[in-house]
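Journal club prep — side note

Before the paper discussion, L.F. wants everyone to see what a predicted structure for a comparable chain looks like in token form. Sequence:
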Amino acid sequence: MSILDALTKPVGLPERYHALSEEEMVQRVREIKKELGDRLYLPAHHYQKDEVVQFADDTGDSLQLAQLAAKNKKAETIVFCGVHFMAETADILTEEHQTVILPDMRAGCSMADMADIHQTERAWKMLTESFGETILPLTYVNSTAAIKSFVGENGGATVTSSNATAMVEWAFTQKERILFLPDQHLGRNTSYDLGIPLEAMAVWDPISDRLEYDGDYENVKVILWKGHCSVHEKFTFDNIAQVRRDMPGVNVIVHPECTFEVVQKSDFAGSTKMIIETIERAPSGSSWAIGTEMNLVNRIIQDHPDKNIVSLNPNMCPCLTMNRIDLPHLLWSLEEVLAGRKTNQISVDEKTAKFAKDALNRMLERA
């Protein structure tokens, strides 16, 4: 389901939840979690609000949480506090007897929605007409189950920001070229770090069905899908220049979903896990400007009062779709589980799941 589809449907949250106090909701969530015990597993992504994270059985990035859900054989229900594509991945990797619930169906990902299956199949047809059988598709895990399935069916694999370098290296042992979906920035930054020049990278525009490239097609090694993260693209070179003026000696660390210019001007770039671990290891008194989602940055600031930490963009807002999941929606979903109802269940059909799992497994085998 796209964000647009979700926003045009009724929210579903019963009105009575709006009348409850925060204390009442917190107490009720605790009671339900205790009553359900091992039958419930509640993972929460790093970008979730504190009001949700406080109840998480585990926190992590999207793939970490899906893997943890897959390892948890006791839980009958997984209430996934993240966004739609994450819950899909959890459903793909878990057992048939397990049910995956997304507390708010409006919790989507604008990046994942920038590549739908119809656009992708059309692009693949046109690209293979130009390049023949020389292309291997790779998709960021921040993509729909249908895109993962397409990639798996065509011999490709998923990637995360943590293992993108290893997976792009692997892809080039399979084919001469790669198609990287749906985030052009992660694809560009990763490929450049592996020594592929910008001149060997083309961009596929799914809106105009056109390959943006001025040179000889024979020189193309990487085809980047024209998609991006609406949060990470908001960090700019001007932000870096400003924070270096305001905080002499600051370390700038960003996520590789940021633009090429921002990554090149930063001191460090890496996955959410890498950012968290780098700050944890940093000496007391050190200064950091972090270019990633605001809920996580605020949590890092709270966890490390001995360090001087700011957001790289002081005007940054949290990821709006991640923030769809709040305490009222979490409580509602848990009460529905307790009542035996599968409200907001995420279920990937068997054929889609089969090839999507192939794409995920090709990555997991190299993790």
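L.F.'s comment for the group: Residues 1-10 have pLDDT under 50 and may be disordered. Keep this in mind when we get to the figures.
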